[in-house]
Fold this sequence. Notes:
Blueprint: H1 2-13, H2 25-48, H3 52-77, H4 87-107
Amino acid sequence: MSRSIASYLHQDLCGLKPDGSEDNNIYFSGDIIQQSESLVPEILKAEQERHTDNKHKHIHALNRLTQTLYRNCRRLERSHSDGKDFIPILRRELKNFKRLQRSWMLSL
């Protein structure tokens, strides 16, 4: 989902501003893709880890990724793009993910 939204936003944000500079929000669209794709490997690492300390390290990294992803979605909502209407959908999915993540962490 994040890849589709970012590619849609990219179309609006890739053009140059009237002063010749680029829109800084274009980098946030790439960040949400990278962070979204980093979630699954961290989940797998936490699941496969035997030592509790290492599990907590991966869980902490997963929490940090989720928070950063949510923050980047808020930044993209403030961008000047028609695609920003899709960002609340991604944020809603992130909220659902956080809820599932909390129950998953208790099962580890």
